[in-house]
Amino acid sequence: MESQKTSSVKIRIPTPLRSYTNDQSTVAVGGATVEEALQSLTQAYPALEPHLYHENGELRSFVNIYLGDDDIRYLNGPDTELPDDAELSIVPSIAGG
Amino acid sequence: MTSVVVAFTGGAVVLWGLGRNLLTVNVLSPLSLPGRGFFSYQVFATMSTLHVAGAKQSRSLDSSVLSAIGRTPLLRLQCAEPGPGARVRVFGKAEFMNPGGSVKDRPALRIVKEGIESGRFDPNRHVLIDATSGNTGIAYAMLGAAMSFTVELAIPANASSERKRLLRSLGATLHLTDPLEGTDGAQAKVRNLVAKSNGQYFYPDQYNNEANWRSHFETTGPEILQQTNGEITHFITGLGTTGTFMGVSRYLQQFDDSIARVAMQPDSPLHGLEGLKHMATARVPGIYDADIATDQVVISTSDAYAMTRRMAREEGLMVGPSAGANVAAAARLARSIDVGTVVTILCDTGSRYLSDSFWDEPESATHVQSTPD
Asked: What is the pTM of this model?
């Protein structure tokens, strides 16, 4: 289903992925849903795509996306609608020790 | 032969020859448990030292939780073996059976012991502070409770609720850090707190503390060699702080340089393997020396999750995803050789990850793919 409006979204990039975003810690994109915002992100930075998505186009199950403080798994997943000025975070697993 | 160590253990005598051709191990255990005498000596010596150094109260540490650290079983993992007729065996060192539920009990104990012995750590005066992804913190907190010292930990806020509750239940104070910065951010937080302090902290810095790998050189490595009767041909484990890999590998290399020492890491900077580091995009621990490894391999999160589920359903072993990654890597290694004894590490208990969704992924995804390296 095509979304009705495009929101302004800020995506926070974790340190392990910043080498793919020219060392930017946040990237501003547009999108009415989480999926659309992530698509905008990977269009702007194509090298990110294999780290977020399977080859079949599905979001990798272990990729943690938060809308504000909420894990989108407990909202509506990638179809979660975004308010204007939404903040998404790509949260890495905790590494080492 | 390079050397022989003789230890007297209150009725037990251990002769340990280093060098494959002259390996001689004779153990008369005071516990009547074959193979445990040498390690009992080490643990009792450790406890004695800590008791003399003293904590806030005069407490006996004999038979305390400290005595349960180490001497873990080595378990046969048939789910990781190539199949009937193959001359390759795969074993997992059951580190999740340590009292703190992970391999990190060993370095935490060694770090505390060396801190006290060196005079850097006075349990009566100092607060132990460090950064952690959870398991080392749990071990520190366990020791702090048993030995009556105070523990503060910096940990990314996205650590599982089970871990945070466990840490607080053991009495630790938590400094929650930005999830996007990972344990690198937690380390920065600790350095900042220590810099602003008035000397009340003991900051062992597990990522750069030589006691980390030495704990495995002195306990885990010898145990593996003894439990395989010196027949180990390949050691493979994932890299986090790198202490386990460095310590065990150095011990095995000293015993026989032909034993393969394979370092594993996640295949992507964004992965689901808590505890493991993707070295190319992480702060590399100061104790890591890549030259010790004879080979480097990567494992995908999906393969690791699949093996973690298989370990539960086929071996009855509830372990965490980093252990699943280790076993997946060991299984792939086992398929690549004709004969050998492969050993890996079962790092921590799966009960620490019960709120993760990967346990519920479809059965069709539960077999490790035969993907090439």
From this structure: 0.84
